[in-house]
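ingest -> validate -> predict -> emit
validate: passed (alphabet ok, no gaps, 126 aa)
predict: started
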Amino acid sequence: MQQVKTRRIKMPVDRSYSPYEVIRAYHDRGMMKWGAFATGELTEAQNTFEKEKKDDKIIQALPHHVVLYLLNQSFSNQVQIKVKYQSKEKFIEVFGFVSEFINNQVRIKSTDKIYLLSFEQIINIS
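emit:
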Protein backbone atom coordinates (compact mmCIF):
# COMPACT_ATOMS: atom_id res chain seq x y z
CA MET A 1 0.00 0.00 0.00
CA GLN A 2 1.45 3.31 -1.02
CA GLN A 3 1.07 6.43 1.07
CA VAL A 4 -0.01 9.51 -0.71
CA LYS A 5 1.57 12.69 0.50
CA THR A 6 -0.58 15.72 0.31
CA ARG A 7 0.86 19.18 0.26
CA ARG A 8 -1.01 22.14 1.43
CA ILE A 9 -0.99 24.86 -1.08
CA LYS A 10 -0.56 28.21 0.50
CA MET A 11 -2.81 30.66 -1.11
CA PRO A 12 -1.52 34.15 -0.79
CA VAL A 13 -3.93 36.76 0.42
CA ASP A 14 -4.33 39.63 -1.97
CA ARG A 15 -3.83 42.83 -0.03
CA SER A 16 -3.24 45.10 -2.98
CA TYR A 17 -6.35 47.03 -2.06
CA SER A 18 -4.59 48.65 0.91
CA PRO A 19 -2.86 51.98 0.52
CA TYR A 20 -0.40 51.00 3.29
CA GLU A 21 2.80 49.15 2.46
CA VAL A 22 2.84 47.40 5.88
CA ILE A 23 -0.50 45.71 5.20
CA ARG A 24 0.43 44.71 1.62
CA ALA A 25 3.74 43.17 2.80
CA TYR A 26 2.25 41.35 5.83
CA HIS A 27 3.04 37.64 5.91
CA ASP A 28 0.72 35.50 8.05
CA ARG A 29 2.54 32.96 10.25
CA GLY A 30 -0.39 30.56 10.17
CA MET A 31 -1.15 28.61 13.34
CA MET A 32 2.02 29.79 15.10
CA LYS A 33 0.29 32.97 16.21
CA TRP A 34 -2.33 30.97 18.15
CA GLY A 35 0.14 28.89 20.17
CA ALA A 36 0.41 31.18 23.18
CA PHE A 37 -3.31 31.77 23.27
CA ALA A 38 -4.11 28.04 23.12
CA THR A 39 -1.54 27.20 25.80
CA GLY A 40 -2.87 29.89 28.13
CA GLU A 41 -6.44 28.78 27.59
CA LEU A 42 -5.53 25.13 28.24
CA THR A 43 -3.68 26.01 31.45
CA GLU A 44 -6.61 28.06 32.69
CA ALA A 45 -9.04 25.22 31.93
CA GLN A 46 -6.86 22.69 33.78
CA ASN A 47 -6.54 24.97 36.81
CA THR A 48 -10.31 25.47 36.88
CA PHE A 49 -10.86 21.70 36.60
CA GLU A 50 -8.47 20.97 39.49
CA LYS A 51 -10.11 23.62 41.68
CA GLU A 52 -13.59 22.23 40.98
CA LYS A 53 -12.35 18.70 41.66
CA LYS A 54 -11.05 19.78 45.07
CA ASP A 55 -14.30 21.60 45.82
CA ASP A 56 -16.35 18.54 44.83
CA LYS A 57 -14.28 16.31 47.08
CA ILE A 58 -16.37 16.63 50.20
CA ILE A 59 -15.56 13.76 52.49
CA GLN A 60 -18.37 12.52 54.68
CA ALA A 61 -17.09 12.03 58.21
CA LEU A 62 -17.92 8.88 60.13
CA PRO A 63 -20.69 9.21 62.72
CA HIS A 64 -19.48 9.96 66.25
CA HIS A 65 -20.57 6.59 67.68
CA VAL A 66 -18.77 4.67 64.90
CA VAL A 67 -15.55 6.60 65.56
CA LEU A 68 -15.77 5.76 69.27
CA TYR A 69 -16.50 2.12 68.56
CA LEU A 70 -13.57 1.69 66.16
CA LEU A 71 -11.15 3.50 68.45
CA ASN A 72 -12.29 1.38 71.39
CA GLN A 73 -11.83 -1.83 69.38
CA SER A 74 -8.34 -0.74 68.39
CA PHE A 75 -7.48 0.11 71.99
CA SER A 76 -8.88 -3.17 73.38
CA ASN A 77 -7.19 -5.42 70.81
CA GLN A 78 -4.04 -3.29 70.38
CA VAL A 79 -4.51 -3.27 66.62
CA GLN A 80 -2.78 -0.69 64.49
CA ILE A 81 -5.17 1.63 62.67
CA LYS A 82 -5.04 4.29 60.00
CA VAL A 83 -6.79 7.48 61.06
CA LYS A 84 -7.60 10.21 58.57
CA TYR A 85 -8.22 13.56 60.21
CA GLN A 86 -8.64 17.16 59.19
CA SER A 87 -6.05 19.69 60.27
CA LYS A 88 -6.92 23.20 59.14
CA GLU A 89 -7.52 22.93 55.38
CA LYS A 90 -5.80 19.60 54.69
CA PHE A 91 -6.38 15.94 55.42
CA ILE A 92 -3.68 13.95 57.19
CA GLU A 93 -3.35 10.17 57.61
CA VAL A 94 -1.73 8.64 60.68
CA PHE A 95 -0.80 4.99 61.27
CA GLY A 96 -0.55 3.96 64.90
CA PHE A 97 -2.01 2.47 68.04
CA VAL A 98 -4.61 4.00 70.35
CA SER A 99 -2.88 4.54 73.69
CA GLU A 100 -5.50 6.38 75.75
CA PHE A 101 -8.67 8.44 75.77
CA ILE A 102 -8.68 11.92 77.30
CA ASN A 103 -12.07 13.67 77.52
CA ASN A 104 -13.18 14.10 73.89
CA GLN A 105 -9.76 13.27 72.53
CA VAL A 106 -7.74 10.20 71.68
CA ARG A 107 -3.98 9.75 71.84
CA ILE A 108 -2.51 7.78 68.94
CA LYS A 109 1.10 6.58 69.08
CA SER A 110 2.81 6.42 65.73
CA THR A 111 6.34 5.10 65.18
CA ASP A 112 7.73 8.63 65.15
CA LYS A 113 5.20 10.84 66.92
CA ILE A 114 2.28 10.95 69.37
CA TYR A 115 -0.93 12.57 68.10
CA LEU A 116 -3.70 13.99 70.27
CA LEU A 117 -6.85 14.20 68.14
CA SER A 118 -10.35 15.29 69.00
CA PHE A 119 -13.16 13.00 67.90
CA GLU A 120 -14.58 15.78 65.69
CA GLN A 121 -11.34 15.98 63.68
CA ILE A 122 -11.46 12.30 62.74
CA ILE A 123 -12.96 11.66 59.33
CA ASN A 124 -12.17 8.02 58.66
CA ILE A 125 -10.65 5.00 60.40
CA SER A 126 -9.42 1.83 58.73
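Residues 15 and 23 are 7 Å apart (CA to CA).
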